[in-house]
Amino acid sequence: MSFQAYIDNIKAKTGKSPDDLKKLAHKKGLIKPGVKAGEIVNWLKEDFDLGHGHSMAIWAVFKSKGWVEDPKKK
Q1: Which one in 3, 42, 54, 61 has a CA-CA gap of 20 to 30 Å to 24?
Q2: Is there a contact between 48 and 15 (Cβ–Cβ < 8 Å)?
Q3: 70 vs 37 pLDDT, higher one
Q4: Residue 74: inside a domain, yes or no?
Q5: CA torsion sign, 26 to 29 to 50 to 48?
Q6: In a domain, 20, yes or no
Q7: What does the alpha-carbon distance between residue 73 and residue 9 come to, in Å, rounded to a whole number?
Q8: Is 21 exposed, middle or buried (0-12, 13-18, 19+ CB in 10 A)?
């Protein structure tokens, strides 16, 4: 499955784009310095019933857009 297919499937399942999920994460206080992937992943699993792979795809989008810090770039 391509990365874009993951994103498309997330939108089909949740009705939310990565931008929409970023806004919701911000409202929940998850867009903050030092946030860990596990916090975002757990939130997506609990609130949107996403699997681990799909949740990690959203984490990857958040990192690539600079919405969260990439711990490997510290």
Answers
A1: 3
A2: no
A3: 37
A4: no
A5: negative
A6: yes
A7: 29
A8: buried
